[in-house]
Amino acid sequence: MKTTGKIKSPKAPVYDAEGYQTNIKDLNGTPLPDLSKVQAKPFWGGAREGAGRKSTGRQPVLLRLTPKTVRRLRAAARKQGKTISEVAEARLVLA
Fold it and tell me: pTM (2 decimals)?
């Protein structure tokens, strides 16, 4: 079969400063959507409502204690079956 008419050659690609092609109108004959009207949603990740550890109202504090104090605090916590924070808070409230 003989072709008639001129064969259209594709336009040379034009790139912006970041290296993205700017003059693309379709992809394999499928027109591209108008990006100003499209809202992108992430596939996964990000914060979700109600996700994460629930707040206890407590604040983290960094303390520099002597090794002897740390040993005594840990021993008291083990003996009472409590956390180090619970034992330290109880002792500070009494003071």
Answer: 0.44
